[in-house]
Amino acid sequence: MNNSSYGVGKIMLSLFLAMCLRVLPLPPFWADFNPDWVLLTLIYWSLAIPERVGIFHAWVFGVLIDVLTGRLLGQNALAYSLVVYLCLKLHKRLRQFPLLQQELYIFICLLLSQLLLFLIKNLQSPEQLHSTFWLPVLTGTLCWPLVYTVLRFVRLTTRLKS
């Protein structure tokens, strides 16, 4: 197997593991803190290897998450595609940022995704914005250095070229 297909396999495996973490059955208290691992992984790969992971991957994995979580079909796909598009537009600049500045951008991306999902859910059945709304955004932002470090190690050991 050549390096290119081996690298694609590593990318897909990391996204599959992120999907498993996303739908992991957790106690109700801990479920509120579970960040969107799939979106964090898509953001990393779209910044690191924008020519291999893009909007199509975001859409496909968004639809898969919609199916796995039982949400309205396409809402995660729309949110993921929008965030990955924004990352692709700024990937050259974002790659130069220190990790702390990247965390601020990740916070904005996760917040945008969460707001879009809330807006779509609110169109279906109006509800109030709860304090737990912010928890996945905050934990996702705090988990970014871990996601970045682990996936960077995977990318460098696989020698995936950007």
Describe the structure in brief.
By secondary structure, the protein is mainly α.
**What's the overall geometry?**
globular
The chain-level structural class is mainly alpha
* Radius of gyration, in angstroms, nearest whole number: 15 Å
Briefly note the CATH topology name.
Answer: Arp2/3 complex 21 kDa subunit ARPC3
* Number of domains as seen in the coordinates: 1
The CATH architecture term is: Orthogonal Bundle
Query: DSSP strand (E) fraction?
Result: under 5%
Number of helices: 8
Major sheet size, sense and barrel closure: none
Helix content estimate: over 70%
Query: Would you list the SSEs in sequence order as H and E?
Result: HHHHHHHH
- CATH class designation: Mainly Alpha
> What's the pLDDT, averaged over the residues?
91
Secondary structure: number of strands: 0
Q: Termini separation (Å)? A: 20 Å
Could you list the spans in which at least 5 consecutive residues all have pLDDT below 50?
A: none
Summarize the structure in words:
The chain has 162 residues and is an all-alpha fold. The protein has one domain: Arp2/3 complex 21 kDa subunit ARPC3. Helices cover 74% and strands 0% of the residues. It contains 8 helices and no strands. The longest helix is centred in the C-terminal third of the chain and has 26 residues.
